[in-house]
């Protein structure tokens, strides 16, 4: 598969952002949590794009 290293790195970043969002919500930092979820979704979209190439 092409782009394996990049996909692995994007997976890590997506997972970290998803985990951060949970923590941020628990702490009442809802704007930051929303941003983290948006970033994670963008990373996941990038992963899907790379997988189709």
Please tell me about this protein's structure.
This protein has 53 residues and is mostly helical. It has one domain. Helix content is 87%, strand content 0%. Helix 1 runs antiparallel to helix 2.
Ranges with pLDDT <50 over ≥5 residues?
none
The main pleated sheet reads as: none
Rg result: 12 Å
Mean pLDDT, nearest integer?
Answer: 96
C-alpha end-to-end distance:
9 Å
Q: Percent of residues in beta strands?
A: under 5%
Structural shape: elongated
- SSE succession: HH
Number of helices: 2
Oligomer kind: single chain
Which secondary structure elements does this structure contain, and how are they paired or packed?
Elements: H1 4-26, H2 30-52
Helix pairs in contact: 1-2
Overview in brief:
The protein is an all-alpha fold.
Q: What tags apply to this protein structure?
A:
mainly alpha, 87% helix, 0% strand, 53 residues
């Amino acid at each position: 598969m092409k782009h394996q290293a990049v996909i692995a790195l994007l997976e890590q970043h997506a997972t970290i952002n998803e985990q951060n969002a949970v923590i941020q919500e628990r702490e009442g930092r809802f704007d930051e949590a929303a941003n983290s979820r948006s970033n994670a979704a963008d990373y996941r979209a990038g992963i899907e794009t790379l997988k189709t190439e």
